[in-house]
């Protein structure tokens, strides 16, 4: 779970820092509802949400591209970062519940 979280976080951080120009350009407000995805491989992607209902994993916030031109760039980036952090926590809690880390067996975090 931690490696997944760490990889996704690194991908999102890369989108919001190193690759910020590319990320900004991909978030065209004229496109449909876009989401920022971070992957365990430390990569990121701006894409439409999954078509399967319900989705296998919690989805990131929908429509990050719509507010882009209506806000200062710095404020918009901060908003996307906050939503990305919330999505990362949702993914971590999802995996934690799925793998049974709520059990107090003491084996979940043994090294």
From TrEMBL:
Residues of the Alfin N-terminal domain: 1-102
Intracellular or extracellular location(s): Nucleus
Record keywords, A-Z: Chromatin regulator, Metal-binding, Nucleus, Transcription, Transcription regulation, Zinc, Zinc-finger
One Pfam entry name: Alfin
GO biological process terms on file: chromatin organization; regulation of DNA-templated transcription
InterPro entries: Alfin, Alfin_N
GO MF annotation: an example: zinc ion binding
Example of a GO cellular component annotation carried by this entry: nucleus
Predominant place of localization: nucleus
Notes concerning its domains: The PHD-type zinc finger mediates the binding to H3K4me3.
Oligomeric and partner information: Interacts with H3K4me3 and to a lesser extent with H3K4me2.
Family assignment from sequence similarity: Belongs to the Alfin family.
Function: Histone-binding component that specifically recognizes H3 tails trimethylated on 'Lys-4' (H3K4me3), which mark transcription start sites of virtually all active genes.
Protein name: PHD finger protein ALFIN-LIKE
Organism, as annotated: Pisum sativum (Garden pea)
